[in-house]
Amino acid sequence: MEAIIALLAVAVLFLGLLVAGLLRSHAEILRGLHDLGVNLDPNHDDGPPSRHQGHSGQPDIRPGVPQPRSSDTEAFDLVGLDSFGEVLSVAVESTNRLTLLAFLSSSCLTCRDFWKEFDSERLNVPGGARLVIVTKGLEAESESAIRNLSPRVIQTVLSTEAWINYQVPVAPYFIMVDGESNRIVGEGAATSWDQVRNLMGQAMADIGLAAERGRKLTSGSASQSARLNGEARAQRIDDELRAAGINPGDPRLYQQPFVEP
Amino acid sequence: MTAVAQAGIQVELLAGWEARFQNNAPGQSLAPSGRSSNGPRNASVTYSVAHVANFALPIQVSDFGAGAVEIMTSADIFVALCEYGPESVGTALFASQGLPTIKATDFGKQSLQRVIEGQGGCQKFFTEKGRPFCLYVVVGSYLQRFRTVPIINQTVQGISII
Q1: Cβ-proximal residues to B31 (8 Å cutoff; 6+ apart), any chain
Q2: Contact yes or no for B59 and A93 at CB 8 A
Q3: Least CB-CB distance to B23: which of A86, A90, A91?
Q4: How close B138 gets to chain A, by Cα (Å)?
Q5: Taking CB atoms and an 8 Å cut-off, how many pairs form between chains A and B?
Q6: What distance in Å separates the CA atoms of residue B64 and residue A8, rounded to the nearest whole number?
Q7: Residue B4 is nearest to which of A79, A93, A154, comparing CB atoms?
Q8: How many domains does chain A divide into?
Q9: Which domain holds residue A107?
Q10: What is the pLDDT of residues B5-57, one digit of tens each?
Q11: CATH code, A155
């Protein structure tokens, strides 16, 4: 009797392991299909996108996640009130500096850390950009709360219009603008200042932008290094390949390099 | 073109310029006690103040630019329009009517509220729409004032008392 029970226990254990293995394998297949752009969710109305769509550069956006901004989104000057109710405008476009816009709210808990962090006099802003805090206007914010939270050395602008113009999806949200090209160079949501610095530092590196004290560097080793590793480098390589008759999809791009025996 | 207005002063801004208003009028002040108001020599209290600049204005700027002029580079321009009390209307100092046109010769190295090496300043008193004002301009480079004066006048022309 004991032998039968032991045998059954071993069988159950074996079957359990088998089921776990099958579930894991199934999950890996689903993940692989998802990465290829195939969605097997029966509630997914749009139908599975083709592999071609998956490589077209259009990412599959989950519900609730904001659409990527168009690359030619313009920058806007800020016009609103300061935390004492005085009218002001802050130049963002047509300037020769970088501006980091911090869209915060007085009520969101995550924003509290940023309000506190921004009161530090030794705040290290990526590229030395000018940091400007933007909250919604008085119809959505408490003037006294904003006045209490506003840092002593960083401008706070109350402007719902700015939130609309910059299509801000959530708070806290950060947008880095290059005032020379009137172009948004980086943006995103973050929960800590370190994340913001990483995010913006990476965005600047991606486009080969080096800056100090808010001004773009056009010469020197930092500038050269940024250019060699950024967008300009990718563009230069593409241009050289095109000039050599090698276009996107060319099979020669996927060949192993020839190695001398 | 961005336009901003407060207390009957409207400023149409050139590209890359910014503006900030401050109201020091007795009994109407929205500013906290922390905001200083250092008027010109022997001046009475200033009422509405508009600061216009082609550089990033720091958060703490006194009526005549202390706090901002210290960070100016040679290409920078700072304009302050300061209103005085009704008791100044009709006095000789404010006899000139209408917003002034600035000339390069109006600038002096010693015409600054705060003398800073390399900078130049000029001050014009006038009355517009029955309100007495002082227009105070600081250029980051006194030597380059001939180049910056046309831009300053463009900026002044964008100011209107409404």
Answers
A1: A84, A86, B22, B23, B24
A2: no
A3: A86
A4: 19
A5: 61
A6: 92
A7: A79
A8: 1
A9: 78-192
A10: 999 999 999 999 999 999 886 654 433 334 444 444 334 567 999 999 999 99
A11: 3.40.30.10
